[in-house]
Amino acid sequence: MSHPYRPRPISGFPELLPEVRLVEQAYLDKIRRTFERHGFASIETPSVEELDVLLAKGETDKEIYVLERLQADDASAKDARLGLHYDLTVPFARYVAQHFNELTFPFKRYQMQRVWRGERPQEGRYREFQQCDVDVIGVDNLALSFDADIPAVAMEAIKSLGVDDVRLHVSNRKILDGYLQVLGIEDRVTAIRWLDKLDKLGNVPVVAGLAAAGIEFEAAAAAVALAAIPVGDPAWADKARKLAAQSNTTFDTGVEELTTVLDTLAALGIDNVAADLSLARGFDYYTGSVYEGRFINYPGYGSVVAGGRYDDLAGSFINKKLPGVGISLGFSRLFAKLQAEGRLPIGPSTPTQVLVALPSDERRALALATAKQLRDRGLNVEIYHAPQKLARQLTYAEKKGIPFVWFPPFDDDGKHEVKDMGAKTQSEADPRTWNLPA
Amino acid sequence: MSHPYRPRPISGFPELLPEVRLVEQAYLDKIRRTFERHGFASIETPSVEELDVLLAKGETDKEIYVLERLQADDASAKDARLGLHYDLTVPFARYVAQHFNELTFPFKRYQMQRVWRGERPQEGRYREFQQCDVDVIGVDNLALSFDADIPAVAMEAIKSLGVDDVRLHVSNRKILDGYLQVLGIEDRVTAIRWLDKLDKLGNVPVVAGLAAAGIEFEAAAAAVALAAIPVGDPAWADKARKLAAQSNTTFDTGVEELTTVLDTLAALGIDNVAADLSLARGFDYYTGSVYEGRFINYPGYGSVVAGGRYDDLAGSFINKKLPGVGISLGFSRLFAKLQAEGRLPIGPSTPTQVLVALPSDERRALALATAKQLRDRGLNVEIYHAPQKLARQLTYAEKKGIPFVWFPPFDDDGKHEVKDMGAKTQSEADPRTWNLPA
C-alpha cells in the first residue's frame, strides 16, 4: 500500500484525543452556560477579516496569517487581502460597527472561537487557539457597573471548571495615565509598554528602559515605585495618592473607579481579586479598568484571562462613540496547563453510556429496538457491530470506558440484563424504564 | 473621530445577527445531541493541514487557501506549507493514521467544524462554512450495517431540526463500477466523473462527453441508461440486472449491498430514502455505498448531505487497511436555504429569560441578590444597567425579546413582581421559587 506522506503533529496547532476532547467540550459547555446565565448572546464572526480591519489599530506585532489561494488567478488579485483574526475583540468591534442599526444597546455578547497568530510556539502559546470572550458595548456611555460584571462572569466561568486558583489582577489605566502626567512624562504609550514588562524584567531594567526612551531617571524611578505597590495591598489607594503627591483629575478618577470596581467584585462574591497597579496591558486601546487573571500556583505561566475597558474601539470603524468593556478567557492556554499538571478529569473516550451487545445476527432487530427504547429517553447508546464473542464485546466497552453493557435476551424466553462495568454487577432490566443510576 | 475603514461584508464569509445565531446554535446543539445519542465521540482537528496531506488524494480542484505569515522571515521559509482544510474527511483520515495506536476501533467520531474553499461564492456556496461529519473507521474490515447506520444518523439529525423534506439518494459505486466493466469501459474514473454530471447536464451532453473521452457511443449510451433508472424506482435492482445482461462479481456485490442498505434504512424507520443509480459522487475515494441528500422542495439547490464508504482513505497515510464510511452534513448550506425560505423560527436576540429591573441605585444590591437567586436555579438573567424610567427598561426587554421582566420592590414594604411580556400580565412572585411557565 502506498503512503506518500507520514502524518506528524504541526507545531503550534494542537489536537486532542477523544477522551481529552470530551473534557474540553464539557468545559466549553460550562463556560457557555455561565455566559448565557448572565444574558450574553452568542455571536460568531468569520475567521478572516480584511487586512485593513486587522491593522486598523496599528497592531502589527500579532503575526497575522494572510490567506493566499493555491490556484490564484488574475481575477483574485483584485480581491481585498484577507487575514485570519488574531483575537476576537477587533472582529467584535467591526461587527458592532457594521451591524450598528440592527443591534440593541447595551449589546452584550459572548464569542467562543479559534484565533490564529504565527508566533513561535512555546508552553501555553499556540498558533491556533480557542478564546472565550465576553464584552458589552454601549452607545455614548456605559455604566461602570459593567466593569465589575464582566470580570465577575469570567471568574465564575473559570470556577465552574473546578479551577479556584486563578487570581484576578485589576487596575485602571487612568491611574497610571494621570500619574505619568503628574510626573511630566509625555510619551505615556511608550512608558506604559515598558511598565507592562515589570513583571518579566524586574524594576532595574524597566527604569533603564524608560530612561533610554528619554524619560528622566527620577520620573522613571517614581513610575516604577507606583507599580511596585504590592499586589492586593489593601492600602493601595492611600499609597498611590501619597506617591502622586499632587492632584490630577485623571488619576483621581482612576482611583475612584478602581475602588468601586473592587468593592462591587467583593459584593458579587468573587474571590481571588487583587488590586495590581503594575498592571498596564500593553494594548493601547484600553482606557479604564484593566484585568489580568493568572494561576496562583504557576506564577510564571502568564495570564489565562485578560481584558479591560475601551472607549473607541468600534469607533475606528464608525462615526459613533461606542464605549465597551470586555474580557477574554484564554481557553487553550488554561486547558493546556490543567492538562500538563494532570488536573483534567479524563474518563471515557466516547459519550456512549450504554453498549447494547449483539447476541447474533438474527437478533439484530431486537438489539436495534432495545437501543431505540433507551435513546428515546435521552441515553447515549451504541450497538456492538458484529455478533462476536461476548468477551470481545465487553473488552470494547471497557477500552472505550462505556459504563453499562446491555444484554438483550439470547432467545425468546430470556430477559434483558444490564451490566454495570464499574461495579461489576449484572441484573435484569427493562429497556422501557431503565435509567442511569443517579 | 477617525474611521479609516468602513466595514463591509466579505463575500463568501457569512455572519449572522444574534437572533439568527441563536437558532443556528440551537440547531447545532440538536445535531450534536443526535450524534452523541448514537455513541459518536467528538474530535476536532486543526484548521490547517500540511499541503502534502491536503493534496495526498490528488484533490486539486478544491481551491485550497494557503497561509502566509504577514511578517514572514527567513526562518519561516523552512516551515512546511500549511493550507486550511477544505473538508473534514481528509483531516479525519490523517488523525486516525497519526493516532492509530491510541484509538479503539471501530472508531466512531463526529466532527463539527468550519472548512474553507476559495471558490466563487454563489447561493448556498460559501468560502467559509460549517460541516457536521459522522464517520466510523475499522481495522481490516467494517460491518455493512454501518453503511445504513451512518446515513440514518444524519437523517435523524436533519429531522431533529424539524426539516422533513430532505430525500436521501443512495447508490453503491460497485454497481456502476461493475457495470462499466461489463461495458468494457476502462477509464472508469473519467466515466464516473461524467456520469456524476448527469443531473446538471442531462443525458445527451453526458453521452457526448463520454464519447469525447474515447468511450464508444454504444457503451456510453448504455452507461447513461443505467443511470437513467428513475430515482426511487422499487424495481431498480431488476432493471439494473437486465441492463447488465451478463454476470459480474463487482456489479452483483454492489446490487446486494445496496439492497441490504436500503432494507436496513427502512427497518430503522428512516423516511425519504430512494435508490438512485445516477449517483456517482465525483470524489474518487468512495468504493461502496454513496449518499447524497437534497431538498425535495428545492430540486435545483444541490446536496445538503453527502458521503459514502471508502476503503483506503486513512491508508494513504499509514500501512494499514482502514475501511470507513461517513457522511457530511453541509450545515451552512442547509441553514442558509432554510433562512432564505423563511423557515427559521427566529425569536429573541438574547438568551436572557428574565430581565431584573433596576428601581434605583440604592436598590442595586437587592437586584443583584434577586438575579443570583434566579440564576442559581439555572435561569438566564440580566440586570438592567441603570436606574432609568421603567418604560425604558421595558422597551429594552421588548426589543431584545426577553420574555419576563422582574420588579424588585421599590421599598422595604413592597413585594417582588414579575411581568410576562407576551401575555402582558403582572403578578407577585418569589425569586426563591419562581420558575418559567412550562
Automatic annotation (TrEMBL), chains A, B:
Bias kind Basic and acidic residues: ranges: 418-431
UniProt entry tagged with the keyword Cytoplasm: yes
EC number: 6.1.1.21
Pfam families in UniProt: HGTP_anticodon, tRNA-synt_His
Region described as Disordered: spans on this chain: 418-438
InterPro entries: aa-tRNA-synth_II, aa-tRNA-synth_II/BPL/LPL, Anticodon-bd, Anticodon-bd_dom_sf, His-tRNA-ligase, HisRS-like_core, HisRS/HisZ
GO cellular component: cytoplasm
Keywords, in A-Z order: Aminoacyl-tRNA synthetase, ATP-binding, Cytoplasm, Ligase, Nucleotide-binding, Protein biosynthesis
Family label: Belongs to the class-II aminoacyl-tRNA synthetase family.
Protein's UniProt name: Histidine--tRNA ligase
Annotated source species: Roseiterribacter gracilis
